[in-house]
Amino acid sequence: MSEELNGLKDHYELAIIGCGPAGLSAALNAKIRNRDFVLLGSEVCSPKLAKAPQVDNWLGTPEIGGEELRQRFLDHVMEKDIPIKYFKVTNIYPGPPYTLMGKDQSFEADSVIIATGVSAEKLFPGEAELLGRGVGYCATCDGPLYKDKQVAIISYNQEGEDEANYMVNICSKVYYIPYYTDIVKVDSRVEIKKGKVKEIIGNQKVEKLDLGNEQLEVEGVFILRDTLPAEQLISGLEMEDSAIKVNHKLETSMPGLFAAGDCTGQPYQLIKAAGEGGTAALQAVKYLDSLKSTNPIDQTSNEVVPIH
Predict the structure, then answer these.
(1) For residue 238, which of 249, 230, 248, 226 has the smallest C-alpha distance?
(2) What pLDDT, on the 0 to 100 scale, is given for residue 3?
(3) CA-CA to 279 of 20 to 30 Å: which in 21, 52, 166, 208?
(4) Region for residue 61 given its phi and psi (left: phi exceeds 0; alpha: psi -120 to 50; beta: otherwise)
(5) When comparing pLDDT for 205 and 302, which is higher?
(6) pLDDT tens digits, 166-182
(7) pTM greater than 0.90 (yes/no)
(8) What count of other Cβ atoms lies within 10 Å of the Cβ of residue 176?
(9) Residue 104 neighbours by CB distance under 10 Å
């Protein structure tokens, strides 16, 4: 299972985002090839597989339960001493090296494999258009920008409660719109709204949040989903039919950035995800080797040796 965030280095050769079948398969292949990598995941790896009553098309294990197969996957990576770091990536700055941003920490990686699956939730109208102009995915990251302003936090899980409680000490007003039940610990100064978001409104920046029966005047809207839409994760990533566009090597439109699994589009099949994860890792290793061949290092002097 996943670990609490600790011991992350400042730099890795490879970062794998996601601990579903694609991410786990990629990590296994990276480990076998002795690469310096980190596997980033969530509290529950592959919840879709966990809910499957039976899996009939996984070669060699007919009629196995989804949760049993999921646990076998996790046991396999544990046996190979591959930790799963609980680290939610909120943004990736293009590279190489790529900079992976989280709530409280960031680090670099020469290569990245996106294996985040797909989000069941669609983007809100106005979300993509106003991203970076009032719309964001990490309130605590951008909190100081909204001092004494009104903001709204839309959350699909209890993680949003901590964000709201943090922002209420900075902002003049915080609205909280939960897309889940069982609210646990929201500060009494936070105003909870039960409506559903119809649209995020604004011309050059966020101005209002439309809940259908009312409109909230806000300057910031933060959306906390279990899975961040891939096109919002990194600017400039080429998409096709709402999926990350890749070639047969699982290369994206950016050098050193690969994608695998459901995030690359249909079919949403377990065997396809695991195969793509393994392939993406092999191609990432080749990419990393190519970096070394173009920038050879003299191990004794730590200086780049010119190629003649």
Answers:
(1) 230
(2) 41
(3) 52
(4) beta
(5) 205
(6) 999 999 999 999 999 88
(7) no
(8) 23
(9) 10
